[in-house]
Amino acid sequence: xxxxxxxxxxxxxxxxxxxxxxxxxxxxxxxxxxxxxxxxxxxxxxxxxxxxxxxxxxxxxxxxxxxxxxxxxxxxxxxxxxxxxxxxxxxxxxxxxxxxxxxxxxxxxxxxxxxxxxxxxxxxxxxxxxxxxxxxxxxxxxxxxxxxxxxxxxxxxxxxxxxxxxxxxxxxxxxxxxxxxxxxxxxxxxxxxxxxxxxxxxxxxxxxxxxxxxxxxxxxxxxxxxxxxxxxxxxxxxxxxxxxxxxxxxxxxxxxxxxxxxxxxxxxxxxxxxxxxxxxxxxxxxxxxxxxxxxxxxxxxxxxxxxxxxxxxxxx
Length: 316
Description:
This protein is α/β, with parallel strands linked by helices. The protein has a single domain, classed as Arginase, Chain A (3-Layer(aba) Sandwich), CATH 3.40.800. The chain is 33% helix and 17% strand. It has helices at residues 55-62, 77-80, 96-112, 126-138, 166-172, 197-201, 209-212, 217-228, 260-268, 292-315, and strands at 35-40, 69-70, 75-76, 83-88, 116-121, 141-146, 176-184, 205-207, 233-238, 275-281. The strands form two sheets. It has an eight-stranded parallel sheet with strand order 4-1-5-10-9-6-7-8, sandwiched between helices. Strands 2-3 form a two-stranded antiparallel sheet. The protein is globular. It starts with 34 loop residues before the first strand and ends with a helix. The model has no long low-confidence stretch (mean pLDDT 96).
């Protein structure tokens, strides 16, 4: 059996103990670890609502309901993987470039050890720091990006670094291979008629919500898999990809998104992809009645771990 597994909920109630992701052991070393869950509680890269710094704690709390076996994927997630909760990476509230430096320093040993991180945000600006670290090991990456916004604007308020500019900066820094990048689910009002052309000019494929709705989630997943190919790929999931009826606890909500079930179906369709790092961002607990956003985020992270477990089983 894998070295690190969750506590047994048949022996100890889920509401007991310190809150780690899925009741996994809190371990910061990387030996005998396949995947590590890490919090990145930074939220001062936002353009609207702040408060996602409390997202990692909320996701961990909701994740106590998770169990080892994923019947939808026919995968024993925690029976296949050795997974730990590595705690939170250090940040500097209000200082994004200082926070980037600390995030990179904290994540680097995890990536160097070949451990796959699942980072819990935090706002979407954190992804740039993560991409920097992952690209140092693997070179320019593929990207599977699920979001209501493309996050490829040039600046906000005269500043180049925030949650709306992440992927433009990533391409400028040669962290991504645009021909293997795809953004899915963009919707809502934008600033100008050509806003959706920005990521396309950068070389990425963009499937806005209206186009996505012409396909089943299985077909969308197939399109994503074809685009990213077999090279090392980063998967990033902004909870505002999902309709605010299911994810009200987020910083920049947009109506008309997918259901929670559709989001999970889409992720399950990505099985076989060479995902080397993940994050889930923009959970804002202050706007999250009954923990429904945090619960979805916890299950999205679980599906990410399922993809890792399925890939490991495939390679045995």
